[in-house]
Amino acid sequence: MTFPSIATPVVQWQASHGRNHLPWQQTRDPYRVWLSEIMLQQTQVSTVLGYYQRFLDAFPDVASLAAAPQDAVLALWSGLGYYSRARNLHRCAQAVVEDWGGAFPRRAEDLATLPGIGRSTAGAIASFCFSERVPILDANVRRVLTRVLAFDADLAVAKNERELWDLAQQLCPTEDLQQAMPRYTQGLMDLGATICTPRKPSCLVCPLQPQCRAARFGNPENYPVRTRKLKRSSEAWWLLIAVDGQGRVWLERRPQQGIWAGLYAPPVFNGREALEQAVAQHWPGTAPLDWTDLPAFLHVLTHRDLHLHPVRVRVQGGGIDAATPDGQGCWADAGVWADMGLPAPVRKLLDAQFAG
User: Fold this and answer.
1) How many CA within 13 A on the CB side of residue 72?
2) What is the pLDDT of residues 77-104, one digit of tens each?
3) 44 close to 214: Cβ distance less than 8 angstroms
4) Exposure of 64 by Cβ count < 10 A (0-12 exposed, 13-18 middle, 19+ buried)?
5) Which residue of 46, 132, 211, 314 shows the fewest CB atoms closer than 10 Å?
6) Per the residue annotation, which of 37, 98, 163, 175 is the catalytic one?
7) Which helix (H) or strand (E) covers residue 121, if one does?
């Protein structure tokens, strides 16, 4: 394959037309760049901005994040979704402190050994902070490069993905890496986010139009090619909002695997009958008038729809405590759950029910 020369136009375009105002672009501190890269996975820039600053206010460096309780990290992450990112963020900070003396490794190869840092994120950190000549292949960059190259191999096949990585490596700048690599990497990201969009790309204003084979063929929307797609599924969950005589709600930690893993939430049941049996077991004297069915609502995840059915029940005493392992559950009021790691829909539900 004959390689188009894209490094120079990408670097020049980024300097004059790319995104240069974002807070994590004004630094080569690997902690800040890493934090932004993890937050930006599956999350829009506009959403990340507020979370990014709050995280830095609470944990200004990797040592402070490593020393923080996991619940404090999850509480700050609440609402960003994909909570495994937060748990890996915490584990990664601890690994940097324990295994690397508190300083992020400078090579992408070493960065990729840390929890939660894949090859593309490692490449971004190494490129932005240390000007290493390594590629990235996040969704935006993958789209740009497959179109430029008219790379039509199925990326659901591992060997084709590896081939694209090899091609991406060869397309990286070869001169003035100290300045060129950060701008080149950011430029590809910016092109994918603003110009080379999934639908109706703005080819006429793209700096890579002269080199882009997909634009020449008139079929940029055909790239990238990926045949294997995850199917959407649907589940119905009943949430027990058990409220004691002091107006506190029972919250328990979710399992470390699965939806809302490691977060605090009301007890979850697969049906109304199972929820009623749990109430009868722990609070057998609960009267019918103490039950309130709250409006059901839909919570949309990437590949799953959760139909949530909250049921508010006034209970007497703390009967559930004895059935819950130590440290895995607690009675909490609004002042307590404000600092707990709660899923966004649970936090919104509780705040609406107990406001004021």
Assistant:
1) 12
2) 988 888 889 999 999 999 999 999 999 9
3) no
4) middle
5) 46
6) 37
7) helix 119-130
Q: What pLDDT digit, counting tens, does each position of 191-233 carry?
A: 999 999 999 999 999 999 999 999 999 999 999 998 877 678 8
d(CA 200, CA 251): 46
Query: Would you state the pLDDT for residue 322?
Result: 42
Token pair for 340: 């707990």
Active site residue 252: no
User: For the whole model, what pTM was predicted?
Assistant: 0.80
Q: Compute the distance between CA of residue 126 and CA of residue 181 in angstroms, rounded to an integer.
A: 9
Please name the residue that has the structure tokens 């405590």: 321
Pair 264, 341: CB distance under 8 Å: yes
CA atoms of 113 and 92, how far apart (whole Å): 10
Q: Taking the CA atoms of 47, 53, 58 and 62 in sequence, report the sign of the dihedral they define.
A: positive
pLDDT tens column, 18-59: 988 889 988 899 999 999 999 998 888 888 999 999 999 999
Per-residue CA distances from 205 to 9, 63, 80, 157, 201 (Å): 12, 44, 33, 32, 9
Structure tokens at 322: 């004895």
Please state, in angstroms and rounded to a whole number, the distance separating the CA atoms of residues 125 and 37: 8
Task: Read off φ and ψ for residue 345, nearest 5 degrees.
Answer: -65, -30
Structure tokens at 91: 């584990």
